[in-house]
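Session log. Operator J.P. requested a structure for one protein chain; no other inputs attached. Running the standard single-chain path with token output.
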Amino acid sequence: DPMWSPVADRIVFRGCDERGNGCGLWLMNSGGGDRVPLTNVPGDAHPAWSPDGRTVVFMSEERTGNWEIFRID
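Structure written below.
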């Protein structure tokens, strides 16, 4: 589920930390470094950037038991 930001300087993706923990959505720079967690829910999926690159929207079934769309700045 990786998605490049509109200006191609960051990537949002579904993943985990190096130990397989902290699964959810993550951000990293275009070179693959500076990984930081964006969410901590393993079921968060299908991220997409807003056109201005300020917001990421994603789907999750795990948060409410139903597929819903969420937004994070």
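Operator note: The mean pLDDT is 95.
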